[in-house]
Amino acid sequence: MLGAIIGDIVGSRFEFIDHSGKDFELFTSTCHFTDDSLMTIAVAKALFLCKGNYENLGKVATRCMVDIAHEYPNVCWGERFHKWLFVSQQRLNSFGNGAGMRISPVGWVADSEEEVKLLSRKITEISHDHPEGLKGAECIAMAVYWSRIGKDKSFIRQGLSKYYPILNDKSFKIQNIMDSYGYDELGYWVTCQGSVPQAVIAFLDGEGFEDVIRNAVGIGGDSDTIGAMAGGIAEAYYGIPQEIEDMAFSYLPADLQGSCYAFELIKKKRASDKK
Hints:
Layout: H1 2-11, H2 35-50, H3 57-71, H4 79-86, H5 98-101, H6 104-109, H7 113-124, H8 131-148, H9 153-160, H10 174-180, H11 196-204, H12 209-218, H13 223-238, H14 242-249, H15 254-273
C-alpha cells in the first residue's frame, strides 16, 4: 500500500503538465498526497475491518471511502467521483483509472488468485463497474499479488498480458512511451485502458523501487495515478528503501500515518502466521 502512496506523492506535482523523463527530484515542497492515497487507505481500512469475512466488503469499502472523503473534502476529486462520494453512491459504469490506483492492498491480503479476483471485483464494482474498470483493477491487484508471492517478471508479464496483450509488444517500452504519451484532450490517459498498461510497463522495465517510480512519473499525463499503480506493484516486488519511506511519511498527517502503520502490522502478522 505504501508504494502506491509514494508514487502518488512523487507524481502529484507533475499531474497533467507537459512533463516526461526520469531526471527529477523525487520529493519537493510542492509534492502532496492526493485522492489516490486517500482511496488506497480507505480500501486498506475496509479490508482490515472485514477481518477475513469479505461478504460485505463492497458496503464496508463504500463507507470507508465516503468517510475519508468527508475528512478531506478539499482534495481534488474527479467530478463524477466527487458526486459519488458526496451525493449518491450509485454505480458509475466508470472505466477511469481510479479503479486501479486504490486496489493495491488487495494483493497483500488475498490468499489465492481466485481471492484476488473476488476482492478486486467487490471493491471496484461499487463505482467502476464497467468491464474495463474491473479489468484494470484486477490487473494491478494481480500484479501486486504475484510480486508478493515471489513470481519473477517473466511470469508476471505473461500473466498480465492476458489483460493487456500490448505488454508482449517489444516496442511497448518505457522510453518509447515517454517519447510519445503526451497530452490527450479526450482524456484517454485517465482511463484504465490508457494508463494501466503504462503503469505495468513502468514496473516491468524498472530496475528497483525508485527506478519504477521514476519510470511511472516520467511518462507524464496522470502522473500521480500511474505512479500509484506502479508503486504499489514495485513495493511488493522490491520493497521500499527506508529513506524513501521516511520521506513519504513526512507528507502525511498523523491520522493517515496511523492507517498506514496499522496496515503494515496486518501484513507482518499475516506473513508470520504463514511461517
